[in-house]
Design brief:
The chain is of the alpha/beta class. Helices cover about 55% and strands about 15% of the residues.
């Protein structure tokens, strides 16, 4: 099996070197690394030259301004039977390619959804690490049991190249291309394997501004893809209908209640928050043991404002994208820290 790694990048001078080193230093080296330099104006092009013939650099000028366009262009140069899709702000675990190869030796699967860990920085990344742990060890594990992985992470996904090129491809009409091609895989009957041992470490927002912008993109892309793929072919399976209703219908109801209840009954709200504190404390304790990170014990306190912020942004994008159909396709490039 020949395996390629596809990495789109735009102005990633703070992280691209570490990303490429992690891709090169695999227990099972990839056969090809394709880096798409999407019109970078910082030192990214110079850093890419340091790696010489170890990588294949594809330059796009001017910048497309959209990750899916860069990925689509880079896919033309992929020669592997399988390609791993990741981001330039991400570090690959040394066993990632080896795990992907093992997973796709099983011909029942055409794609692999890996496991994302957050690089530790401040209280915001602690909250995101908590989200990842609960989301992947509980929710995604349940999705795997239902054979309906909602999303293959853009930073930790792998695909059979020929099938992806012929049947899936990259569209550019949503803000979350990873969710888009995951829906398309399901609707065409392809199976996705979830492998929690196929690990990557990614940068997450370290400021509230960056965090809000990222959540707007994620939630906006979620509603865009639901509208795009909402038909009987998707919902005909009751397992899919159950999962999507829990995510979107329950999400809207929960967000409204969370924001409105304090205005109606403050005492009932206090009781709910105590219940939240209990549940979050149990989950944070589990996360602390799972990741061996003591900072996760702070989650019951520091996650409360994030929960309200997430609810507000979720409803904001619901009304923009779903109710008023004001589609947003402006790509947000997050701030980076050096890794």
């Amino acid at each position: 099996m020949k395996i390629s790694v596809l990495i789109p990048c735009h102005n990633e001078e703070k992280s691209i070197r570490a990303c490429l080193r992690s891709a090169l230093n695999q227990t099972r080296p990839p056969d090809q690394i394709v880096v798409v330099n999407d019109g970078s104006t910082d030192r990214t092009p110079q850093i890419l030259k340091e790696f010489g013939r170890k990588i294949k650099v594809v330059n796009i000028y001017p910048a497309t301004g959209n990750k899916s366009y860069a990925q689509e262009h880079g896919l033309k140069y992929v020669t592997g039977d399988v390609f791993v899709s990741t981001d330039a702000d991400t570090i690959l675990d040394k066993n990632l390619v080896e795990k992907i190869e093992t997973d796709l030796k099983d011909e029942r699967f055409v794609a692999v959804a890996g496991y994302v860990r957050s690089i530790r920085h401040n209280w915001l990344t602690t909250c995101r690490a908590y989200d990842y742990i609960i989301g992947q060890n509980i929710h995604k594990l349940a999705q795997s049991g239902l054979n309906f992985i909602l999303v293959i992470p853009g930073a930790a996904g792998a695909f059979r190249t020929e099938i992806f090129k012929k049947a899936i491809g990259f569209d550019h009409d949503t803000l979350t291309e990873d969710l888009d091609f995951t829906y398309k895989l399901h609707k065409q009957g392809y199976r996705i394997k979830y492998d929690p041992k196929a690990v990557v470490y990614t940068q997450d927002p370290t400021t509230l501004k960056s965090y809000i912008n990222q959540m707007r993109r994620w939630y906006s892309g979620g509603w865009q893809n639901l509208l795009k793929h909402f038909d009987w072919q998707l919902l005909g399976d009751p397992r899919r209908a159950l999962e999507l209703s829990l995510i979107y219908i329950e999400g809207v109801v929960f967000s409204i209640l969370l924001l409105v209840l304090p205005l109606i009954n403050i005492f009932f709200t206090a009781k709910l928050l105590l219940a939240y504190l209990l549940v979050t404390t149990i989950q944070a304790s589990y996360a602390t043991i799972k990741e061996k990170r003591l900072d996760l014990l702070l989650v019951p306190v520091i996650y409360l404002p994030i929960m309200y912020l997430n609810a507000a942004v979720f409803l904001e994008q619901f009304f923009k994208e779903f109710v008023f159909r004001r589609r947003n396709l402006v790509w947000f490039h997050p701030e980076r820290i050096a890794i």
